[in-house]
Amino acid sequence: MMPPNYLAIGLLIVGLVQTFSAPDVKAQSKADQIRAIERQRVSALVDADMATASRLHADDFQLINPRGGTLSKEEYLRNVASGNLNYLEWEPGEMRVRLYGNSAVIRYQARLRVSVNRSPGRRVTFWHTDFYEKRNGQWQIVWAHATQLNDETSGTDEATIRKLDDEKQISEILKKWEDAWNTHDMSAYASLYHDDGMWVLWTGDVWKGKQAIEEGHAAVHKTIFRNSVQRENLEELKIITPHTAILRFCSILTGSNQAPNAVIRSRKFLVLTKRENAWKISWGQNTRLADTVPDSECFVELRKRAAK
Fold first, then answer.
1. Which residues of 155-183 are buried (b: 16+ CB within 10 A; e: fewer)?
2. What local confidence, expressed as pLDDT, does residue 21 receive?
3. What CATH code is assigned to 4-148?
4. pLDDT at residue number 9
5. Which residues of the chain are in CATH 3.10.450.50 domains?
6. How do 96-100 and 85-92 pair as beta strands?
7. Which residues pair with 64 in a beta bridge?
8. Which residues, other chains included, contact 90 with Cβ-Cβ below 8 Å and sequence gap of 6+?
């Protein structure tokens, strides 16, 4: 027979487990209920079961489609019923659910084969984000947002998609850098930096802060670089952490008023940080190449671009 003290401790542990796990179990049960309803809705749309689909869509339902257009419940279900929008296949992936009382948000990636206006149908991959509300004891979808993935990101996980998006944003900085220089728009150029950004010139001087960077470049673009053209070519892009990246590129500048016929080569190194979901330059440095340094492949490509 178990001693009284051990029995009391055992009962206490059981009670604590039940006390602390009950809300989690209840939340998990509700999340599973939302997942089941979403699968039921998907099946109803694939089967054109309009009675079930109508019951699961709120009267004020609105869909934001992949092109950015909106459809009301009536418009959406009418298209499904007529066959103009025919879901031939709809295979949901892992569903993630966030619960907020009588509201819930569900998000998942799905592979679909969709026929529009009686077309043969094509396979696509979407991200789905749906907002549900419990009304009169019935969970109904109120808002739905579908985003189509392109070939580059189709079927990849969320972390990979985020990395590809970051790389795209960072690569665009290089293009904006070149465009701003060649249009001599130093306000646009400085906008690529954080307010506390720094730029180390090839002379060794340092411009601290976005304002100093803009003013310094504006001054030289009124004088020695007034007619200059600069071309950039990416050599290396590395995302070190989710909020830190390095960018290294080679550069060719022509049209300097100090040396109109010269081709000035340099390598530039940038440290970028992501703040408030936007990548900008925190620190950068410019190093000019001596004439004795041979062209690397990066510069060979730039010379070809400059010659066109």
1. eeeeeebeeeebeebbeebbeebbebbee
2. 43
3. 3.10.450.50
4. 41
5. 4-148, 158-307
6. unpaired
7. 70, 145
8. 42, 45, 46, 110, 111, 112
Residue 140: strand pairing partners: 133
The pLDDT tens digits for 80-125 are: 999 989 999 999 989 999 999 999 999 999 989 888 887 777 788 8
pLDDT in tens, 224-237: 999 999 999 999 99
150-197 pLDDT, tens per residue? 654 444 555 666 777 788 889 899 999 999 999 999 999 999 999 999
Between CA 281 and CA 269 the distance in angstroms is: 10
pLDDT at 159: 66
CATH class of 158-307: alpha beta
pTM, to two decimals:
0.52
Contacts of residue 159, Cβ cutoff 8 Å, sequence gap at least 6: none
Tell me the mean pLDDT in the region 292-306: 87
Residues 6+ apart with CB under 8 A from 9: none
Q: Phi/psi zone of residue 203: left (φ > 0), alpha (ψ -120 to 50 degrees), beta?
A: alpha
